[in-house]
Amino acid sequence: MASSPAVPNLVFRQLRGPRSPGEFAALVRRAAREIGEQVACDARYIGRVEAGEIRCPNYAYERVFLHMFPGSTLADLGFSARETVRGRAARDRTPPPPDTYNSTDSTYSNEESDVLRRAFMTSGTVTVAAASLGLGGSLPGVDGLRHGLRADVPRQRIGESEVGAVEEAVRRIRLLDDRHGAEGLYQRATQPLRTAYALLDAGATTRGSTAGRLAAGAGELSLSVGWLAHDSGRLEDARSHYAEALATARVAGDPALEAHAFCNTSFLARDAGRHREAVRAAQAGQRAAGQLSSARLLALLNLREAGGWAGIGDRSGCEQALSRAHTLFGRGPSDADPEWMSFFGEAELQALEAQCWSALGDWARAARHAQRATALKDPHFARNLALYRAQLAADLAHADAPAEAAAAGEQVLDALGDVQSSRIRVMLAETARVLTPRRGTAGVAGFLDRHAETARMAALTR
Known about the structure:
This protein has helices spanning about 10-15, 20-35, 45-50, 60-70, 80-85, 90, 105-120, 125-130, 145-150, 160-180, 185-200, 210-230, 235-250, 255-270, 275-290, 295-310, 315-330, 345-360, 365-375, 380-400, 400-415, 420-435, 445-460. By secondary structure, it is mostly helical. Among the domains are: about 1-95, no CATH class; about 105-255, no CATH class; about 385-460, no CATH class. The chain is globular.
């Protein structure tokens, strides 16, 4: 598949000035929050823009960049006109108003799906078939697409369009999960995963950086879909997806993907009660991550190890792993931090430590860390904020602070209209169970009644 050589965007490089790509990416994310948008911008994305690989940003990035540089146009920032990049379909399409990207109705979901479909509707047999990478709806004949492509599509070289679409699918799934949680998203996300692996198989003769990026993209998509299964209570499905990602990493010789796969596997093992497996997986992830230069990744893997030790009841092992995690985290972020770790800040560190103390039965200490997590969390990560509050409610209930637990639980119930997560519901159910004998305490009865009604309505809709 022929493609025009990328032309470096020197204007954008000048706008970055003396800042590192990672520092500039942080400014982009901050600007996005200022206008109620969220983009998964990292140093690699900035590098791709400056290298000319991204000739025109999607609509979300466009609004962010124009907010950062008032009065500028995309051309002023060194980008090509959208119609020259995306063809006639883009010329015929009027972009939706900004508020549709932040709504929770069908307009928002349709826009997210359309972005992915457009990314794949380019020339070439493989990419036309791969239109199913969109998250919305299904297209005729796409069931079993992965196996169909193996039989019907000749092996050929895969280009930038296909690889970029797989990478964009990963970002979009993570964005939707951050905003709304996993339930309702998992089944739709399995279809683009099948397509991504079909592309990987169809492009078996592809070599060089494109092959590496495609393998990494397919593996990361498998991990993202596995996380959706994990968070919605489908633990065996999650285990299968994580194993597929790990196999992809091993075949491709990709230590970053391998570390991510072990990180998720450790988390899943802990949630499934296989605590020694959680420790071993976290340690294996640390060995893979040792080939990289990300202290934050190693910090997260040590937190996963700490969670495993806590589940076993080994307080000493847990404390040692926590100490290493804090030391590594204190070294700060770097350009080598993986894109998927955008969620991992001080709030997540505090929340994961809270989980360790909960597992060890030190409820008051757990509640203190959970409280810090809720105070620090970026409200744009709606799902994680609801999870931290659910953790706080459970810890307070066990720490014999029923009124405070009920208040925290009420905040979680407020979020359940937009956030759907079985993990959060399980934590709320545990809080309600512990608080039931304290029904006479101020605020507890109201929480219990509301929780019971919410659980009843959820059961009716499942």
